Structure formats: C-alpha cells, structure tokens
Amino acid sequence: MMKMLPFLQSGPIGIRKESKDCIEENRQLGNPSTSVAEQVPVCPEPSEDWSKDQVKKSEKQEAACRHSRTSSITSNGSCASAGESPEKGKKGLIGILKSALKKKKDSKPLSVKQIMDLIEENKFPDAAQHLIVLEKSLSIKSEEELKTSQQDIESVYEILKRKVFDILKDSVLLAAAKPDLLQQAVDALKEQEKEDQNYLSESLPDQNMQSRPRKWKEVWMATVKESVETRMKDTRRTPTTENLSTAGQNLLHMGKTMKEDLTVVVQLIKQLYPPEFNVCSTYAELYHNYFASQLKKTAESQLEDKDIYLLLSWVHNIYPNDIRKDRVLAKELEKVKLGSLLPSSLIKELEKKYLGSEEATVKNCLSRCLETEIQRWKKDQEPEKLDGHFHSELAILAIQNIHGGQKRADALSAALGEEISPCLSRELAAFLKSYKDAFEDFKEKNKKQRFYKPILIANINNCRNFRDYAEKNIAEKDDDKVSILSTLSDIENSGFDVLLQQLFAQLKPIYKKFTENKWDSSDEIMNEIIKTTRKYISDFQTLNDPFYKAVIEKIHVHLVKEYIVRLLKRRVSLKSPAQQQNLAQNVSKNAAALETFCTNHGSQATWLNSALPKLAEIIRLQDSGAIKIEVATLATAYPDIRFCISL
C-alpha cells in the first residue's frame, strides 16, 4: 500500500465507496455515461479539531473538487482539490489523508467493461484516467492476478489508443467539423503524457508498471507525420488545372494543401494542446520536409522548360511569399527555421538551365516574328493605319517577347533578372541585324509593288518602338545598346533614302534652271521647287511624328544645299554693283521662301536658316579680302559648303 503514497500525495484522495460519509456511489457507477466530474461524491465533514477557518477552507476545496474537470481520479468515487498537498502541516487534513489510506483497502476502480463503455461513448479522457487508476491498482495484486489484469488493461489501452489516434490522424478534417471529438482525443493524449512524466519523475518507479512510459507523444508525432504525408500525396483533392503538367499539378497540390492545412492548425488545432507539444512547429516542419523532399526528386528528374520555371517559382516566390508570409501563418512560421525548399547547389543548376532555355525561347520567337513579317511584305498589301500612320505588328510582337523574358526572370528573383538582361539585349541586337538585312533585300527586289512605299514607311515606323524600348530598358553599360541604336538608324536612313530618291530626282532638272542668265527669274524657279516638294510631303504624313520631322529636315538640308551648289557651281559674271546687289536680293528672297516653306511643314533645322542670307551678304561685298574671310567663316559653319565650293 505504501507504493501508492506518492500517487495519492500528487493528486486527489480516494474515498471508499462503503464509506458512510460518501453519497451513494453504486448508483452513479451503474450509469457509465456519467462524466468523471459528475461521479465525484461529496467529501466527508472535517474533524472536530479543526478551527472554523479550516472548515471554511475545506468546504471551498470540496466545492472545487465537485466542479473541476482538472481533479485527478485515484479511485472510483474519490475526490480532493487539485494541487492540495498533505505537506501543509494542517493536523485535520493529515487525519483525512490517513483515513483515506485506510479506506482505500476496500475501494475498487471501474471495471474493464465500464471503461470500454466510456470509450464507446467517446469519453476518451475519462477512460484514460480510469485506466490509469486501474493500472495503479495492480500494485496490490498477486503475480497471477497481475498477469491476467495486465492483459485486460493492455487490451483496453490498445482499443483506446487506436480510437484516439484514428481521430488525431484526421485532426485537420475534424478541427472544424467535430471539434469536441478532437478535443476528447487530445485530452486523452495529454493524460497519458502527464502520467508518463509522473512515472519518470519517481525516484523508485513501480516495477510492476512495465508498460510505462507508454510514449503516446512519440506515437502522436508519428501519426501527425503519417497524416501529413497522406494528405500531401492525395492529389485527387486538388482540381486539375489546365495547361499544368503532372509535375506542376503535384506542386500546386502540395503547396495548396500545406497552406490550407497549416491555417487550420494555427486557427483551430493549436489551442487544443499545451505549449510543450509545439503543435505549429511540428506540423510546419513535417509539411516543409515532405514538400522539400518531393521537390528535390522532381528537380533531379528530366523536366520540361516550363516545369523548370515553375519549380523555381515555388522556390523563389510562391513558397516564401504566399505561404511563409501569409498573414495567418507568418507569425508562427517565423518561429520555425524551415530554410529553402531546395539545396543552393541544385537551385543554381536549375537557374542555369532556365536562363539557357529562356534565351533560346526568345530567340525562336523573334525569328518567327520576322518570318511572319517578311511573308506579309510579299503579299503586297497596304499596311494597317494606327492614328493615321502606317503600322506593323512586328515591333510590338518582338518587344513583347523580349519584355516577357525579362519579366519572367524578374518574377523569380532580382538576381536572375539582372543576369538575363544582357542575354536578351544580345538577342535583340542579333534580331535587328537580321531585320535590317531582310529590309534591304525587300527594298531592292520589290520596287514595283503597288504598296512599296507604304510598306517602307511602316517599317521605318517600327524603329520608333524598338528605339524607345532600347533607350528605356537597356543599361548604358550594355555593349549591345550602341549596336541596337546604330542598326535602327541604318534602317531609318535607308528607308528615308528610298522615299526621297524620287523627289530629289524630280528636283534636279528644276535646280538646273538656275543658270547665269536666269537668276533674275529665280522666284519662279523657287516656286516650282516648293510646289514639287509639297506634293511629295503629303505622302510622308503617314510617318510617325519623329520620322516625319526627320524627313522634312532632310528635305530642308537638300533644298538649301542644292541651291548653294547651283549658285557656286558656275561662275556668275556680275558686271556691275547693281547686278551684284540684285543677285544678293534674289538669294535673300529665295532663302526666305525656303525657310518659310520648310518651317511650316515641321522642319526643326533652324541652323540652316542663316546659310543663304550669309551668302547673299558675301555677294554684296566689294572688297575681295572681306569676301575671302566671310567664305571661310561660312565653310566652317557649314562643312557641306566646302564640298559645294570644291565643285
């Protein structure tokens, strides 16, 4: 009997059911559905030696005994305040302890059948408590009785254990649907863990308690692991997503399951357990470890390009941002050192594969875009107009592919975005060179097409979009930026040359009319030049504004240059100062007409406006020395005039 003393001292005191001081216990035991708390009888009256204060204190403790679920049950029908110790030195209390020990000899725990009834009624903590009491009662039995009773107890324990852990395995499902049932299972687990700790804390553990410690907490850990793996494997629970490969669907299922299940753990399951179980950390580590192990297997297999990208998306973006930083989970997951889903060496290997495949994908897309454009040219169809300007989809499609590759890399990580940027610039530079070659080939071979000029204009307009993208998105330190802008300038100027070729050819015979004997009628010649030019300019309005202004500037330069060439190409004999002044006046009038015409049509080449007036001033000069100085100054300001003078 003394072996029972530590147990009695650590919990409530059992009272004999035969005691005259207790309320009819047999009636209560006849109803096994009655909860443990309801089976606790009224405690005996205090002895006469107690003071009034002690009596009041004892009554309060007795009331707490009847209503508290935390009271330990040492034998059927026994009670005492939780945490009350006989060490307090109260004489009356010691008397009750001795009386309880004496009455214990004739007290009987619940039978196996009664405990089984509790299990069937899903009163798992009550059943666990009574099993503990029944287990402790074996200390006073003979060896033969002990063997038989132990077998019976172990059989009941196995039934209880199976039911409890079947429920705990489905914790995620039951947390919202049947929280009371889940709480019962958790409480039974807590009772067993508590009893294991009590047993291990004893200085001389009872040798008859060979089944202790039962290690239900370890079983719980294994059960949670099994539950996690089962749920992570069951891909049928996640609807199939269109365009996702099998690997992609598995990743989606595992990530979705982990996030949803951990949300249930944090919001509904954690509160059912004591802190020492570290419920959130346990679940989080198990989900993470399983996810990481499966991801590693996937990464080491043969993957399609899109699956490599998807894998890196989970590692760099979805997992750390959408799961670990989720507003519900973040606080709990910050306490757990989960780490990355993949080893850094494997991540680097995947990144290298991704960069290569992304560059190849962009290159192939650009090649297809150009081929489609070339086929469109061959059809000799008028290009579409956008806001009154001839338009081609080539630049838009090409830039979308380049930008898409950059955006996809940026979405994975800033480092990958920086790494792929020069690769994409290199592909754009190579593409534009191919585009330039195709454009030149079209120019030479398709001059007789009906829509030859509109197609040229549409391709010149393409350059604006390419130029804008390059200037805004390619770093100055990138060597390919210079190459890209240079190639675009070549395409633009090549197109301008073709567009202006016919105009300049038509103007040439008109300029020839500026001969020695016709300078007096230069106004009429200038009007004819302007009229002819105006007719062509109307066709150039389908160019985008920057290119329209550029072509008008080229026309402006050509008109001024050709005028100077005709003025200086042949010697003009001016026999008198009057003739000299008259020519200067005509040049000034022609200069004003050209300036007005070109400026009104959008030319911004204001630097040309003073060229002809300066020539007029030179013509007015009488001193040969002054003339030489002014000509030298003019040639310095306008280098092209040197060429004109040399003619």
From TrEMBL:
UniProt xrefs under Pfam families: Sec6
UniProt feature, compositional bias: Polar residues: 28-37, 70-79
Region of interest called Disordered, as start-end residue ranges on this chain: 18-88
Family annotation (InterPro entries): EXOC3/Sec6
GO CC field: exocyst
GO MF term (any one): SNARE binding
Biased composition (Basic and acidic residues): 18-27, 49-65
Any single GO BP term: exocytosis
Protein name: Tumor necrosis factor alpha-induced protein 2 isoform X3
Native organism: Apteryx mantelli
